[in-house]
Design goal:
Blueprint (H helix, E strand, L loop, with lengths): L1 H12 L23 E10 L4 E2 L2 E2 L3 E8 L1 E6 L5 E4 L3 E4 L4 E7 L6 E10 L6 E2 L1
Antiparallel strand pairs: 1-9, 2-8, 3-8, 3-10, 4-7, 4-9, 5-6, 5-8
Length: about 130
């Protein structure tokens, strides 16, 4: 997997001279075999003050905040507020105990990339 990830980063970085790119997120990944896995991109929208119940995912989830501010607590980590352009990760089976809009007056939205074994339910209650 490291080879594929490295190749993707190199391809993204080798853009035309008129464009620029910079890493916005780096995190070690668990040792997993991705044979038989798929990626699903999900746009999650939270109205003011809205959130999701505590849950977990069977694979790796990478989230990118598109709009507003998202409060999140994953595993034993601290509850954190993420703003537009920031990212967080969930590793297989980790409890996502808090996932909500940090604002009671403005909407929030994130893009979640869920990598999991094909056929697995992507979200289950914690």
């Amino acid at each position: 997997m490291a080879g594929a990830g490295g190749a993707l980063v190199e391809a993204l970085m080798a853009q035309s001279p008129s464009s620029s790119s910079k890493p916005v997120f780096t995190h070690d990944l668990p040792a997993v075999n991705l044979a038989g896995w798929a990626v699903t991109a999900v746009e999650v929208s939270y109205g003011p003050g809205a959130g999701s119940p505590s849950h977990r995912h069977p694979g790796i989830t990478i989230a990118y905040v598109l709009e507003g501010e998202i409060r999140s607590k994953v595993g034993d980590g601290p509850e954190t507020t993420y703003t537009v352009g920031q990212m967080f990760i969930e590793t297989p089976g980790q409890v996502h105990g808090v996932s909500r809009n940090a604002s009671s007056t403005k909407p929030a939205k994130l893009l979640a990339l869920l990598l999991a074994e094909k056929g697995k339910q992507l979200t289950t209650p914690a």
